[in-house]
Amino acid sequence: MRENIIGREEEKRLLGDIFASGRSEFVAVCGRRRVGKTFLIKEFFEQELVFQTAGLADENSRRQIKSFYDDMLEQGLPRQAEPPRDWIDIFSLLRQLIKLSDRQRKVVLLDELPWMDTPRSGFVSSLEHFWNAWASSRRDVILIVCGSATSWMMDKLINNHGGLHNRLTHRIFLQPFTLRETEAMLQRKGFTLSRYDVCICYMVMGGIPYYLDLLDARLSVAQNIDNLMFRPNGQLAGEFHNLYAALFRNSTDYVNIVEALSKRKEGLTRGEIIRATGLSSGNGITTTLRNLEACGFIRHYHHFHGSRDEAVIYQLTDFFSLFHFHFLAKGKVGSWMALQGTAAFFAWAGLTFELVAWHHLQQIKDALGIGGVRTEEFVWRCTDAERGAQIDLVVDRADQTINICEMKFCQDTFTISADYEANLRHKLSLFAEYTRMRKSLQLTLVTTYGLGTGSHRGAVSNVVTLDELFT
């Protein structure tokens, strides 16, 4: 039911418009594994689905076809004298099943679509024929296809240059939950958590609904993380490798790149990735990087335009993968409970909180009162051996102002010391010198509980707190 859907306001509005459009619609829903694609569609169209099926994690075409056919039989298709031989037969039978429905709008959900496209099976061409020759000319079919393998969805559907070129009527890229949506889900599960603890959950699990749903409200956050990830039989103990293996046929190269990126918080250039992993340069690594980005595991960025380093940087942005390499991959940490308050915990939290800020840029802008101002966001660094410095978030505003943002994860209010103020002013001075920027500069602190008292608190112009990231 639609009331079971947490957040997803834009997606729900779009799905409502699609349902009311009065024409046939072909919708692709993409997103990372476990992000809630299937749940969203099933809950929204619970009463309108006339058929739903999912591909098998199996490269045998016959088994894929049999599974599809069995689902059609269970959902109202009369048994045929001859079973379907190929995908052309399957989609011919799907037309029959759709015609049997007396619903005004006929919603068909094909889930895990990339798995159906086994080698030399003719699946894509059969899907093209089904849509182009029949469904698109009607006014009542809503064909929704989902896939976790976002790279396949991009290549075979969204950027298709064959029969499906420009045939999609809508694309939905489902993102992980925000902090606010994460909090809402945990509250629905019976948790009464501080926003600090909600943030910890987010930094470990990245706002992935499936992971959050495994949490037990009778336990603390630390106990839950121990039970799910640090115990050998925990439900998420092997999730990292399952995640990449389910998305990518040659997952080893993908994992090697992600591992290399996990060791450098600011990221690596393409050349640095090649040197770190031993992978060969060429189209192979280009495709791998593109697929990782399409699936939401990494991002690429340029340094601020005033930097002398114009190379493209790739950075790991998947919270779950980052947590895995910080703690689980090493295999030496006994429990998450034992890590609380340690230097290792705060090193991880400080790095990860910077990603939280990047994932909530709109909330930061709203808190600064510039939600409607056009901005560009960058990282900036000075590589001078003696005067080096890095700024993890530069918000370049159209109103001739730049916010130089510092992120600080703390268990209490943050107090600016004399040394820290000197460091901030050093960064500001270097930035102004190297970029020759004529815009006004504002030092902005993004932190959990705001600023404490002290004679140096005037060093920053603006403070954004954790509460404001939940808006």
Q: What does it look like?
A:
- This protein has helices at residues 9-19, 37-44, 61-74, 87-100, 113-116, 123-133, 150-158, 179-188, 195-205, 209-213, 221-230, 239-247, 251-262, 270-277, 283-294, 319-328, 336-339, 343-359, 361-367, 418-435, 466-469; strands at residues 25-30, 49-54, 106-111, 141-147, 170-173, 298-301, 313-316, 375-382, 389-397, 401-408, 440-447, 462-465.
- The chain is elongated, with a radius of gyration of 25 Å.
- The mean pLDDT is 92.
- The chain is of the alpha/beta class.
Radius of gyration: 25 Å
SS strand fraction: 15-25%
Identify low-pLDDT runs: none
Structural classification: alpha/beta
The gist of it:
With 471 residues, this protein is an alpha/beta fold.
What structural keywords apply?
12 strands, 471 residues
What's the topology here?
Layout: H1 9-19, E1 25-30, H2 37-44, E2 49-54, H3 61-74, H4 87-100, E3 106-111, H5 113-116, H6 123-133, E4 141-147, H7 150-158, E5 170-173, H8 179-188, H9 195-205, H10 209-213, H11 221-230, H12 239-247, H13 251-262, H14 270-277, H15 283-294, E6 298-301, E7 313-316, H16 319-328, H17 336-339, H18 343-359, H19 361-367, E8 375-382, E9 389-397, E10 401-408, H20 418-435, E11 440-447, E12 462-465, H21 466-469
Helix pairs in contact: 3-4, 4-6, 8-9, 9-16, 12-13
